[in-house]
Amino acid sequence: MNKFMRMMTAASLVLAMSLSLTACSGNSSSDTAADTAADTAAAAEETSDSAEAISITIAYQGGIGYAPVHVMEVQHLIEDNYDGEITVEYQKLDAGAAINEGIIGGTIDIGCMGLAPAISGVAAGIPYKVVSNLCSQSHGLMTNDPDINSLEDISETDQIALVSTGSIQHLLLAMAAEEYLGDAHALDNNIQSMSHAEGMAALESGTVQLHLTSSPFIYQERENEAYHELSEISSVWPSGNSFLVAMASEEVYENEALYQAICDSFDQAIAFINENQEEAAAIEVDYLGLDEDTVLSYLNNEDCQFFSSLRGADTMADFMYRAGFIEKEVSMDDFKYDNVTVE
């Protein structure tokens, strides 16, 4: 029995006692007892109101793809959409693994991450599902070696920098390897895990021969005349497919009012970005540390799209199971909540 119910029960008992005392002691005792009951009920109601106050934590990583989360934070959308007192904390973390640990431990309520790590999390039994897609983004496999023009040209000694094994970049490389080399794991031994920024620096210095990265780093590397891009990645994961998703814990989903406020907030943030790119770019300046014109050019790129539905997620999940990246199949019903559509 929660505190509110205990106090209401106490109020009922006081009131019942007052009625029984009326017959024995007259109106004066009745009035005093009734007043006490009213005070107790009022205190119970006040306690109930305060119990409605909740707090949630939303975790995300770096990059322009998280723009909907940035807009939600700056515009206080969840606070405005939730009918009650709520505190929303936003945390920027370095890796999806830390977000998953927070979800499991109950310190994070919504985790925003790449599509592939989210599928891996569901397959592993992490209690969350997609509440909204965030975006699609541009990907590319760049090389500084003029003799490498396809995946078949990559030798055993050539190093491929990407953010981590199990990341969506790794999965895109594996999809291309399956399609063009006949083995999804043909290039696993070539992988060097490093951050996007470190990979870009390693490609420039010649420490690695290839770098598979995403926006905004891919935009900068495409401008460098010393590099050229291999085409296989874009052929297996076309422009417009999902890249980042927002995963909500089961506890969030079970709170109907909270969940609806979160859904509405993601929808509003995505609509704001699509309809107000200059204002969105101004918000992103503070998060990305880039000038507004550069950010606006990224938002105007045809591969940079923001939408709430899932696109290509079933293809990714099927591949991950087939290629042994996950041990159990993940259906779209397993992966998403009912409000999320699949295209």
Number of H- or I-type helical stretches = 16
Per DSSP E runs of 2 or more residues, the count of β-strands stands at 11
What does the average pLDDT come to?
87
Please bin the fraction of helical residues: 40-55%
Question: How far from one another are the termini?
Answer: 45 Å
CATH topology label of the largest domain: D-Maltodextrin-Binding Protein, domain 2
Low-confidence residue ranges = 1-30, 43-51
Give an account of the 3D structure.
There is one protein chain. This protein has helices spanning 3-25, 27-51, 67-75, 77-81, 96-105, 115-123, 168-181, 196-205, 217-222, 232-236, 250-254, 256-275, 277-288, 292-299, 313-322, 332-335, and strands at 54-60, 86-92, 110-114, 128-136, 139-143, 160-162, 191-193, 210-214, 228-230, 244-249, 305-306. Helices cover 51% and strands 16% of the residues. With 343 residues, the chain is an alpha/beta fold. Helix 3 (67-75) crosses helix 13. The model is unreliable at 1-30 and 43-51 (pLDDT under 50). It has a 6-stranded mixed β-sheet, with helices on both faces. The chain has 16 helices and 11 strands. The protein folds into 3 domains: 3-39; 55-136 and 242-335, D-Maltodextrin-Binding Protein, domain 2, CATH 3.40.190.10; 139-236, Periplasmic binding protein-like II (D-Maltodextrin-Binding Protein, domain 2, 3-Layer(aba) Sandwich). The chain is globular. The protein starts with a helix and ends in an 8-residue tail after the last helix.
